[in-house]
Amino acid sequence: MFAATRVLRQAAAHAERVPSIKFIGRRTIPASVDHTPKPHPASPTHSLPANWGSSPSFSAYRQHAQQHGPLRKTIRPEVDGIGGSPGAALGSVNPPQGLYFDRNDLPARFRRQPLTEAEIEAIESGCGFA
């Protein structure tokens, strides 16, 4: 049994790998790519948010981004050290108006609907809904 497994593994290791996707033609790199932001085709407003262009680069955007509190405060060990300034000096950790950090903070219409007893029974029994 072990010898057969070893033979099969060796054969598989030496077999030529054939990709399952066949590309037509050679790969070409476009001369120029338009990276200007565009609204999503399914956007209800067909426009970008009002403050979208306020950051000229990702690093500038990151200076004002928030994730569990402001990110713009850099730790300078030689000056501040870790914990060198109080948490209150770092700014508010509350999201701006209209933004939410947690799914549970969203309005009720965006939350998951609880399962009914019939749905739970159908899932547990393996049957589909009637």
Automatic annotation (TrEMBL):
UniProtKB keywords: Mitochondrion
Polar residues bias: start-end ranges: 44-66
Statement: the UniProt record of this protein carries the keyword Zinc: no
InterPro entries: Kgd4/YMR-31
Annotated GO biological process: 2-oxoglutarate metabolic process
Lineage: superkingdom: Eukaryota
Protein name per the record: Ribosomal protein YMR-31
Family that this chain belongs to: Belongs to the alpha-ketoglutarate dehydrogenase component 4 family.
Localisation per UniProt entry: Mitochondrion
Residue span of region Disordered: 31-96
Taxonomic source organism: Neurospora tetrasperma (strain FGSC 2508 / ATCC MYA-4615 / P0657)
Listed Pfam families: Kgd4-YMR31
CC annotations in GO: mitochondrion
GO molecular function: oxoglutarate dehydrogenase (succinyl-transferring) activity
